[in-house]
Amino acid sequence: MHPILEVKSISKSFGELVANSEISFAVNKGEILAILGENGAGKTTLMNILFGHYMPDKGSINFKNNPLKFGNTGNSISLGIGMVHQHFTLADNLTVLENIIIGHKSLFSFSLSKKRSLEKLNSLIDRFNLPINPNAMVSDLSVSEKQRLEILKTLYKDCELLILDEPTAALTPQETDALYKTINNMVKQGLSVILISHKLNEVLSVSDRIIVLRNGKMVGDQETKKADYKSIASLIVGKEIFYPKKTKAIPKEQVLKVENIFYETEIDLDVKIKNLNLELYGGEIIGIAGVAGNGQQNFAKLLSGHAKPSSGKLYIENKEIKTFAPQSFMELGVAYIPEDRNKDGLVGDMSIWENAIMTETSNSEIVSNFGFIKNKISKEQSNKLCSLNDVRYQSIDQPARLLSGGNVQKLLIGKWLHRKPKVIIACQPTRGLDEGAIAAVHEMILSAREQGNGIIIIGEDLDELITLSDKICVMYNGKLSNPLISSDIDKLKIGMMMSGESFDND
Questions:
Q1: pTM
Q2: What does the pLDDT look like over 232-289, one tens digit per residue?
Q3: What is the set of domains in the chain, with CATH numbers?
């Protein structure tokens, strides 16, 4: 079979950083190729070269026997290469049809040929089973509908090779299944797909072939039917990965209680919180599952002191909280791991050691009576903290923004655990991390549970929530379901609740 895409000896460096080194592979017509690798392995750089965003230092790419013009996105699109990014690029104030036409023709010319454009779109919807209302406003679409729209945008431009970057990151299990049925349908009709995903179980179930990148080099090219989870995970990180196992929970005293809490604000884009009730005990993990935009952000802000409820009560260790402020909550023993670790979790231009001690301003060992930081002691303690939590870096003085995503997360969790909190609020704790970093973060979370911490994990990855949680609640449209204990946790049921079906909080 003659390949539709041939990548030969692609290399790309950014200064001293080698992002891609002599990478060569091919994609056949009607094939699903999965590209895996750690954060920083070179996947994104390679796809940006393929889609025309970057110029390689060396190498060539042929698509349908045509040489790719590097650094020219228009050329990639015109040849039939389409890419759906992890974060959608849609105009909420326009309709589905208008979003598809943007960049293809002006809206003025579109108005002159609306009938033809609509006919083509409806034909694509029917052909690939991507149901969506062409006249619907994008702002009114669900996450899965926006995903379909992004795919239709590429198909409208006669795409023959579709690159999907983390396509199921925010989808329910049912939506994920539906998406992969669509992808398989596209492949049967001759399209080729490059899939980038951190979800190995999905990759193993849907792909035909797997390529693994590590440190900018290709270290594996294998038929999926000959691969298994453990071997691929080990290939990604270069060593065998040991996944922690959850023991039976032994709940201790109540550490957090949410009682009839409501929250609303006119300036907040997230949905309102409606009559939330929850009890958390030391030594247990409660997972909060939900599709993005159902109130999880506001819930996390309430639990961490970043917002004050409109009504209702919140207790920490049976003490009713009157002052809602991050510093107050921190002093009461609440640790907050934000969803956006780089924006909200650290100050990127400050050093690693400065970020490590940021929560220790009341520690007399590192802060003098006059409020000055004791640099030498601070660096020593930061090095110990990083070593204990396997945070890898070149120098403790380097800017924190140079850390990989996994190392940032280990630093954030590690510095909070050092304070011996009573409650940990963790939002999307492993989003975007590779298998090795995921295993390390899971180990840290379960270890904190063993030490008696009460932990709330707010996330969209059901597999992760089921793996870690003793109970799972679903948040939908600002409401919280009754908790499901481990023995009652059913992935399909939770997925239906996340989409609003069978949701019950009575």
A1: 0.72
A2: 988 888 888 888 888 888 889 999 999 999 998 765 555 788 999 999 999 999 999 9
A3: 3-237 (3.40.50.300), 244-333+421-506 (3.40.50.300), 347-416 (no CATH)
